[in-house]
Amino acid sequence: DAGVTQSPTHLIKTRGQQVTLRCSPKSGHDTVSWYQQALGQGPQFIFQYYEEEERQRGNFPDRFSGHQFPNYSSELNVNALLLGDSALYLCASSQKYRDYEQYFGPGTRLTVT
Amino acid sequence: QKEVEQNSGPLSVPEGAIASLNCTYSDRVSQSFFWYRQYSGKSPELIMSIYSNGDKEDGRFTAQLNKASQYVSLLIRDSQPSDSATYLCAVNGYGGSQGNLIFGKGTKLSVKP
Predict the structure, then answer these.
(1) In chain B, which residues have their Cβ closer than 8 Å to the Cβ of A45?
(2) Predicted confidence (pLDDT) at residue B93 exceeds the cutoff of 80
(3) Distance from CA of A106 to the nearest CA of B (A)
(4) Residue A89: burial class (beta carbons within 10 Å; 0-12, 13-18, 19+)
(5) Hey, which of A27, A95, B27, B97 would disulfide with B2, CB 3.0 to 4.6 Å?
């Protein structure tokens, strides 16, 4: 049973650049949520996608955007990177009617220099 | 501002002892409660979910929920060195979807051989 996968594992970008992170949900799951985890903090909710639409959004600026594809995989895009965007970006998958029961992928470590 | 509070620790227990981890939450309408385990450098792993008042047991883990006191706890019996990790408490958010999980900062547990 394939779990949640994310790519890339690590990424180093420069301030002002743009980045795209990718996620494939667990088999049988159709909902994808994205979180940002800064060092020493708990994950913070960015947004959730279901049926290729953004269902809910946390308190993140419009520089953070996403997309979900027909096969349920998802992308997180961040524009105009800031040093403060350096964090572990986590994708979590779930089922539509149990979207609160979320399983995380291994994450992408983003470093902005 | 909906919040989840945890003692940051570190909580140190000897091998074989019971580890007790606590969490309080501010939003009375929260319905779903979760404990995640996160090893250093890894992503969070869902270990327990609880939805109604009382105790829920799964192997060496017991989750306890008291909605009147807005309190949820995790007991780990017969603690092992492999249980050494950060434990994150999460509650579902508010809105059209329950999928917005709000996390505490986590409690670091150290089990000494």
Answers:
(1) 93, 100-102
(2) no
(3) 5
(4) buried
(5) B27
